[in-house]
């Protein structure tokens, strides 16, 4: 991957380490019940 975007509908997206890590990451939300509040 190269750190720049593709041209129009070439099929090539934006590359780079940050974008690759985001593509391989799944965000989740965790909620903990606390008696302190």
The gist of it:
The chain is mostly helical and 37 residues long.
Overall 3D shape: rod-shaped
The helix count comes to 1
Radius of gyration in whole Å, from Cα? Answer: 18 Å
DSSP strand tally: 0
- Helix- and strand-based class? mainly alpha
Name the poorly predicted regions.
Answer: none
Q: What's the rounded overall pLDDT mean?
A: 73
User: Which percent range describes the beta-strand content?
Assistant: under 5%
- Calculate the terminal CA-CA distance, rounded to whole Å: 47 Å
Q: What is the H-and-E element order?
A: H
What does the main sheet amount to? none
Fraction of residues in H or I helices: 10-25%
Report on the architecture of this protein.
- By secondary structure, the protein is mainly alpha-helical.
- 19% of the residues lie in helices and 0% in strands.
- The chain contains 1 helix and no strands.
Task: Record the SSE blueprint.
Blueprint: H1 17-23
Labels describing this entry:
19% helix; 37 residues; Aldehyde dehydrogenase family protein; rod-shaped; mainly alpha
């Amino acid at each position: 991957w190269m750190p720049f975007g593709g041209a129009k509908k070439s099929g090539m997206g934006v590359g780079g380490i940050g974008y690759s890590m985001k593509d391989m990451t799944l965000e989740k939300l965790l909620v903990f019940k606390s008696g302190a509040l």
